[in-house]
């Protein structure tokens, strides 16, 4: 199979990558446009040729991540497989995003509160709806006798908090590789849900 060539990163893409790294390290509020311009290697005035404001950067990061997660959720909801298989696929996606796109995902998970309206309400609604859709997969599994009788909302909360804990894996000096991390987490979390006869 011939792979399509990767698109060269635009200046805006580079700005978003650098901004995600800085927002994660310093926080959105403490990062200035001047800091960002320096990290990109351009004059602060030139930054505004590519982006209107710091808030626009945060919007782009948060909604790029949200769109990826929602598209993946739609594919899983429409796909085949039992509830445990669907949860495993969801988990693997979440873990890979935290391993491969850590800074963007971290920012969208921790710094979204700095979004301005109407983006703030929109993003909050998307987060809420995503958790409900995740819980619905668990509830469906309970009804089909594939998953233990548990509170689905609590299960989603625990799963998502466990995945966000990958932040400490990134900081660790001696760590297992990303694939081992993914496989270990999937086994631990799906086995906790699976109903055994």
Structure in words:
The protein has helices at residues 11-26, 33-40, 44-47, 54-78, 83-100, 102-110, 119-143, 152-164, 166-171, 178-193. By secondary structure, it is an all-alpha fold. α1 packs across α6 and α5 packs antiparallel against α7. The relative contact order is 0.12.
Can you give the mean pLDDT? 92
Output the radius of gyration: 19 Å
Profile the largest sheet: none
Structural class: mainly alpha
Number of domains: 1
Q: Give the CA-CA distance, first to last residue.
A: 43 Å
- Counted by DSSP, the helix tally is 10
Order of helices and strands: HHHHHHHHHH
| Number of beta-strand segments | 0
CATH architecture descriptor name: Orthogonal Bundle
Helix-residue proportion: over 70%
Task: Outline the low-pLDDT stretches.
Answer: none
Principal-axis shape: elongated
- The CATH topology turns out to be Tetracycline Repressor, domain 2
The CATH fourth-level homologous superfamily: Tetracycline Repressor, domain 2
What is the top-level CATH class?
Mainly Alpha
- Proportion in β-strands: under 5%
Topology readout:
Blueprint: H1 11-26, H2 33-40, H3 44-47, H4 54-78, H5 83-100, H6 102-110, H7 119-143, H8 152-164, H9 166-171, H10 178-193
Helix pairs in contact: 1-2, 1-4, 1-6, 4-5, 4-6, 4-7, 5-6, 5-7, 5-8, 5-10, 7-8
Give a summary of the structure in a few sentences.
Helices cover 71% and strands 0% of the residues.
Throw out a few tags for this protein.
single chain; 197 residues; mainly alpha; Tetracycline Repressor, domain 2; 71% helix
């Amino acid at each position: 199979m011939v792979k399509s060539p990767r698109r060269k990163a635009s200046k805006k893409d580079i700005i978003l990558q650098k901004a995600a790294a800085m927002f994660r390290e310093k926080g959105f509020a403490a990062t200035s446009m001047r800091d960002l311009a320096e990290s990109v290697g351009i004059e602060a005035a030139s930054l505004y040729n590519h982006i209107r404001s710091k808030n626009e950067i945060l919007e782009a990061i948060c909604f790029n991540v949200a769109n990826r997660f929602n598209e993946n959720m739609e594919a899983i909801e429409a796909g085949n497989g039992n509830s445990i298989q669907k949860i495993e696929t969801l988990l693997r996606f979440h873990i890979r995003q935290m391993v491969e796109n850590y800074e963007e995902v971290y920012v969208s998970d921790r710094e979204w509160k700095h979004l301005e309206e109407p983006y703030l309400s929109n993003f909050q609604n998307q987060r809420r709806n995503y958790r409900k859709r995740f819980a619905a997969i668990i509830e469906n599994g309970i009804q089909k006798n594939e998953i233990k009788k548990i509170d689905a909302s609590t299960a989603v909360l625990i799963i998502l908090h466990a995945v966000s804990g990958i932040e400490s894996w990134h900081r660790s000096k001696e760590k297992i590789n990303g694939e081992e991390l993914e496989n270990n987490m999937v086994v631990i979390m799906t086995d906790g849900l699976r109903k055994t006869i």
